[in-house]
Write a structure and sequence with these properties.
Number of helices: 2
Strand order of the largest sheet: 1-2
Strand content: 5-15%
Structural class: mainly alpha
Helix content: 55-70%
Number of domains: 1
Oligomer: single chain
Largest sheet: 2 strands, antiparallel
Distance between the termini: 21 Å
């Protein structure tokens, strides 16, 4: 798939920025879940952990957007 600009109310936006916002919204939910479960108390550097999780989510979204979900034969 080719990444093309997204028309958002007459303003052309890069598709990566849309994916970044989507990953950020997903990260908010996961961070709240991690706080509720108590995972962030056991992590050495919570901010670094949250940033690494954000990068993983963003790269996964970009991979799925580029290749799409594939069904094995």
């Amino acid at each position: 798939m080719r990444f093309a600009e997204v028309d958002l109310f007459g303003v052309y936006v890069a598709p990566v920025s849309v994916l970044m916002i989507t990953a950020w919204v997903m990260m908010i939910g996961l961070r709240r879940l991690a706080v509720r479960v108590g995972l962030l108390r056991w992590v050495w550097h919570p901010a670094l952990f949250v940033f690494a999780a954000y990068v993983i989510i963003l790269s996964s979204l970009m991979f799925v957007a580029a290749h799409g979900p594939r069904v094995l034969p």
